[in-house]
Amino acid sequence: MIESSKSEQPDVFTSEELQGDGPLYLQIVGLLERRIEDGTFSPGDRFPSEPKLAASFQVSRLTLRQALALLQHRGLIDRVVGRRGGTFVRSRPISRDLTNFAGFSDQLRRQGRVVATRVLRAELLPASAAVAAALELDEGETVAEIRRLRLEGGAPVVLECSSFPGAAFPGLLDERLDQSLYQLLHSRYDRRPTHARETIEPLKADRQAGRLLGVQTGTALLAVERTAFDGEGTPVEFARDLFRGDRARMTVWSFEVPSH
Prior knowledge:
- There is one protein chain.
- By secondary structure, this protein is of the alpha+beta class.
- The strands form three sheets. It has a six-stranded antiparallel β-sheet. Strands 1-2 form a two-stranded antiparallel ribbon. A two-stranded parallel ribbon has the order 3-10.
- 25% of the residues lie in helices and 32% in strands.
- It is elongated and about 70 Å long.
- It has two domains: 15-89, Orthogonal Bundle (Arc Repressor Mutant, subunit A); 94-251, Chorismate lyase (3-Layer(aba) Sandwich).
- Helix 2 packs across helix 3.
- Mean pLDDT is 85; it is low at 1-8.
């Protein structure tokens, strides 16, 4: 559920602003989209109430609701019922580009966003069979496991769980772990990750993931499993990241395969 500490926006619409000859609800959609794009409404802002909007546009509540339903379908707004409900501008989803290898912090920085990190747990553990296989270790060898919650705009976006070979990175857990881990591997150990193999699958949030990500149990998440390698091709990280499906999208560039 979305709650906003911002007050409802003043009346900023008139029927004279509607453009085009199409159905009124599409004209309303176009105007509201423009007002979101130009910054009149920012993420988290609440629209005026439905009666006020309908009166401003001089349309029926049914026509207005058609417009709001389309904006919600396009992922631009959230409509919340209840005492603290209303129509809120949704935060833009972050874009996770799987074509170019970079850490989460670097990718968000390139998008002009600020990411915050909450370290949930950091400990030395015996490698499970899956982790050992990915890192090319023997099962039971020591790995440094780091669980972190990444936030953007104060809202949780991704729950990370990364494992690193303990012998290769002694003292890793003594470092600041709320910064870029890839930069840490590069600066302290000279083992900069250069490429990775990643797989994506949809899944539903369990109770713990839902609580940490601020969503209900059963909400759709995107699970990204990654093995990262250094320049010598040696695996340095095995990770499983859980992204909120409503806050993130995955981007992959495709190119034509040259014919022989």
